[in-house]
From TrEMBL:
It catalyses: cytidine(34) in tRNA(Ile2) + L-lysine + ATP = lysidine(34) in tRNA(Ile2) + AMP + diphosphate + H(+). Residues 25-196 form the tRNA(Ile)-lysidine/2-thiocytidine synthase N-terminal domain. InterPro entries: Rossmann-like_a/b/a_fold, TilS/TtcA_N, tRNA_Ile_lys_synt, tRNA_Ile_lys_synt_N, tRNA_Ile_lys_synt_subst-bd. Residues 284-350 form the tRNA(Ile)-lysidine synthase substrate-binding domain. Keywords: ATP-binding, Cytoplasm, Ligase, Nucleotide-binding, tRNA processing. NCBIfam families: lysidine_TilS_N. It is found in: Cytoplasm. GO terms for molecular function: tRNA(Ile)-lysidine synthase activity. Belongs to the tRNA(Ile)-lysidine synthase family. Ligates lysine onto the cytidine present at position 34 of the AUA codon-specific tRNA(Ile) that contains the anticodon CAU, in an ATP-dependent manner. Cytidine is converted to lysidine, thus changing the amino acid specificity of the tRNA from methionine to isoleucine. The lineage of its organism: Bacteria, Bacillati, Actinomycetota, Actinomycetes, Micromonosporales. The N-terminal region contains the highly conserved SGGXDS motif, predicted to be a P-loop motif involved in ATP binding. It comes from the Bacteria. This is tRNA(Ile)-lysidine synthase.
Length: 354
């Protein structure tokens, strides 16, 4: 029996460890080396594996490439094989953010239609290291520095401990020809500059282990985040009183529209910490002022999310402004949160304005 190339074995082992025990899965595949190697490994390991590719329509010939990838997937035994065509027009953020939002919406819809229990993404250890560097450059806190989670909702990233060089070697060993996305080398994009210049410079200065070290740091920070978020959720539970009844005239603030792929809050009975309760519209300042700053800010972040502020737009400055209502109170006005939400300090409490 021919010996399995180490790169192929590494990708298959990572996928086997991450593959759900039962139920169909979809592989999100662009045709690049990472997702192509992932798809091949998932097809080898899994018993019910489909493939979905998203055509953003941003490059000439994208529809033809998507059709070619779909034809390969059909011939390779993937079932179902889906091509999702999306538009980024009118979506918020820059081109990268808009394309990402459209892509995840399409993956969510595909998972719902096919009953997939997981959507596999091809992000590698190198992608994780790039994410950490970008977060550092933005001045991100622990959430940003924790990088991409291995699992979140239906999203599964099996290759976060696999080097990008191994996915390329795996494709070569299997006779797969990946598509080279020109955006990955376009200096107009920050991630491309990190990939092409910043990270190679760090490797040259500090050695090749820097990639694995950055990815490992993200994993450790993510574990710490999970523990601290649990403490913050417990603290927020302890602050719960009687919800909307505390604020005369206030209506229920629960809104729908969460993305099941991201595992976000999807119903009034589920808070970010997994606790069932109505939204807490008022918190006494005295209950918050004695908390350690790191815990208090996490509580405020969770509370803002429970009020309906979208997590993608909720930033450090919003939480700092809420915190200032407690620690630097001098009669300032309302704090404006994303989603048109306002919070004021009133009679010794932080209150969501009706």
């Amino acid at each position: 029996m021919a010996r399995i190339p180490p790169s192929v074995a590494a990708v298959r082992l990572a996928v086997r460890r991450a593959m759900p025990a039962d139920g169909p899965v979809l592989v999100a595949c662009s045709g690049g080396a990472d997702s192509l190697a992932l798809a091949a490994a998932a097809r080898f390991v899994g018993s019910s594996v489909g493939l979905v590719t998203v055509d953003h329509g941003l490059q000439e010939g994208s529809a033809a490439r998507a059709a070619s990838l779909a034809a390969w997937a059909t011939g390779a035994g993937f079932d179902p094989v889906l091509v999702e065509t999306v538009s980024v027009d009118g979506l918020p953020g820059g081109p990268e953010a808009a394309a990402r939002a459209a892509r995840y919406a399409a993956l969510s819809a595909a998972a719902a239609r096919t009953g997939a229990v997981a959507v596999l993404l091809g992000h590698t250890r190198d992608d994780q290291a790039e994410t950490v560097l970008l977060a550092l450059a933005r001045g991100a806190g622990p959430r940003g520095l924790s990088g991409m989670p291995a699992r979140k909702g239906l999203l599964v990233r099996p290759l976060l401990d696999v080097a990008r060089s191994d996915t390329r070697k795996a494709c070569a060993a299997l006779g797969l020809v990946p598509w080279e996305d020109p955006h990955n080398s376009d200096p107009a994009y920050a991630r491309s500059r990190v990939r092409g210049n910043a990270l190679p410079s760090l490797i040259e200065a500090l050695g090749p282990a820097v990639v694995a070290n950055l990815a490992r740091s993200a994993s450790m920070i993510a574990a710490d985040n999970e523990a601290l978020d649990g403490l913050a959720a417990d603290a927020l539970d302890a602050l719960w009183t009687s919800g909307p009844a505390d604020t005369p005239g206030a209506a229920s603030l629960w809104t729908a529209g969460s993305d099941p792929l991201d595992g976000a809050v999807a119903s009034p009975s589920t808070s970010l910490g997994g606790r069932g309760r109505r939204r807490l519209l008022k918190i006494d300042v005295s209950d918050l002022s004695g908390m350690r700053p790191a815990l208090r800010r996490r509580v405020l972040h969770m509370w803002a999310r429970e009020l309906g502020a979208p997590g993608s737009a909720l930033s450090h400055r919003h939480v700092e402004a809420l915190d200032a209502l407690i620690t630097d109170w001098h009669g300032q006005g309302a704090v404006h949160l994303p989603g048109g939400i306002q919070v004021v300090r009133e009679r010794g409490a932080l209150v969501r304005v009706p």
